[in-house]
Amino acid sequence: MNEVVVQVRGLTRVHPGQGGERPPALQGVDLVIRAGEGVAVVGRSGSGKTTLLNVLGGLDRHWTGEVLVQGRDLGRLGDEGISDLRNRHLGFVFQAFHLLPHMTVRENVLLPSWFGDRSLLRDGPDRAEAALRRVGLWDRAGDLPGRLSAGERQRVAVARALLNRPSLLLCDEPTGNLDPETGLVVLDLLLDLNREGTTLVIATHEDRISRVLGRTVELREGRVVRDVTRDPVGSAGREAP
Amino acid sequence: MTLATRMGIVGRHLARSRTHLAFAAVGLVVGSASLVFFLALTGGIRERVLNRLYPVNQVELQREMVRVFGLGLEVPSRLDEAVLSALRGLPGVQGVWPKQKSRFQAILWGGREVFGRDFRVESFFDGIDPVLVRDEIRHAEQEAYGPEVLSGRCETDQDCGLGAACRAGTCGRRTFWDRFRDPGGDLLCRDDGGCPPGEACIDGRCGIPCGDQGCGEGGVCDRGRCRKACGSDEDCLPGETCSSGAGGRACRRLECRLENVQQVFSSDPEVIRGWVVSSNPSAGESPRRCPLGTWCATGSVRSVEGTCEAPIPVILSPSLLEIYNRVVASAMGMQPVSGLEILLGVPFSMVFGESFFIEDAPVDRRVLRRCVVVGFSNKALDFGFTVPLGVVVRANAMMRGREGAAEATSVILETARNEDLAAAVEDAKVLGLVPAPRSEEARKASQVLRILSWVFGLVSGVMLVISSIHITHTFLMLLTERRLEIAVYRAVGARLSDIRAMVFLEAGLLGVFGGGAGTGLAWLLAQGVNRLPGMGGLPGLAGVSRLFDFSPGVLLAGVACAEVFALVGAWLPAARAARMDPAAVLS
Asked: Residue B570 and residue B502: Cα distance in Å, rounded?
């Protein structure tokens, strides 16, 4: 049995201004994710997918319940602890890429190393090269993101998320802004990482993604209504049976 | 996160937002420039002007005057040793420096070397402790002539060239300030009443009588009078020689005589040195003149016998030169004097007891003394000149007897701390002493200056506050532009403290830049003001050529204030940046 990477108990998140008519973004969510798992968090818009990822990534701290990531209780960690967790163990890939337009591709990928300890800062350039080679964009390292296509930008974002060799990769609609063909390339990349042992959590509303991951957690009005584990299909390019 | 990394990120921010930040820094530049300009100006006026006229921890006190129908009459009190002792005992007082004016008429003549012909005028002078003005006249001399130590090793004065002297193996400029000291001199007397207080008439000359405990350390009791113990002539004053006598080797003034009474008024530097009277005529010594740098000071203008003495060192008030240039030179069609330094080393003579107006002393009691100008000080008498206190005390005793030398005319009171001065002045009123008019005027000027500095400081402060608000506004705007950037930083591991530090660092660099530029601007403005017509040399102030005092403290204050206001301006943006919810921005 693989070690537990994420353990959530009774997670509730109420957004400010939410009255009694709208349900909380998350309510009473229980979830356990083990190392190496590939989890698709699915649901309709507003079901709480992104909120769940933000909570797991420590970006959202206004919740109740218990959330442990890498054995660390996020409710008890201060800003320093959570920032350190993000810097050392977590990777984010966003739907809108969120590359910094004034920095080159290489600098965008290096970004986590600037906020890390001295070893990460020292190893950053080598890791950035490896990550960019991994996503096939080393030859574009000196370009600004504005010169890249959408798919290339998302691959750079993946490379940035890989710099700290995360044990948990949180992806929020990673293919949402990409055409189907390009989306497949990015998805393949993520699946490869998952196969290599990186725990992958993808919030998505695309069925094809949920089909190729080993586990699907469906949220509806902030609650887990379905949590299905099955053998992954293996490649995003193949249709699930 | 290392400082270098932080600096790198902040450097990118600054480069990207340079236009916005340049505008934000304008307020800092103007505010700090204004602050530094006014601080340097008021500091300069205080340090270079007021403190010279009226040091903040010194006040000149004189006997209280009562005015009767517009006439100033002194309250009958004495500024004698008892009052001086009482002043020394006041809380916070660290120095009491009596001044004494000459209490007899005198005429001086001389100045041919500078003015082309001799002046012959009624003269007034007072005496002051040389210690009180030594630094001031040295500073003024250095500003006029430059450093005292010149380059080059030497063995004799000839190795150093014209106007320089060899001192301890190194060539040095000929100096004057160090000559402002009491040259000493034996006063002829008939009884104790003709000697200064503390001295007695011993064998026809005034001297300090030996006490029960002898003459103390460094003193030798020689036939009832104390003399300075010595090992060689080097230990003695000019005109003295180190010789053996009763009690041991001691400094004794050389006695001399002129060949005839006409030589008393001679201007021949060789003739006036007279001939030293041998203490042992039978020894067959060859006749010699008074040592170089001294002259034979006779007991009266009708006497040929006297003692070898150095000329009396004299300091002048810079105001005197102004009076000459503005009044005398134009009225008499003479060349104005371009600078004070030209008067240094100029000799002149004085006859005590002579006057154009009254019969002050019979001819056989008149005394000729030779003097030399050695410096300039604002503490010197405005209309007259100032000599070492001991010279005036001896001269007053000689011309007016002991009573004439017993009382100071005024006293300079010095406190250890500036803030103690006001209380000391109040305490001195009990003793019948009040600030001299000049001190009172300077005190009022100082108050006005203080008020002006506050006003200027307030104006600069308002500018800096406005610039601080401007910085807040600019940074808030920039942070709105950088919301995504900050959120990404947070997502990849930046701490709140990193975000805050980056904002403060950016503001801090802006502050340093703004403060530095403002300080530079103030300096440039000051240079411009210094070059305005009439600012080259300030009236009444020897050696003052610049009105502004850009001390390290002022420069630092300019940059520090800009820095503080920049950081204050960044406070709200930094807090808001740290409060920003990255999840809301990134989702």
From this structure: 10
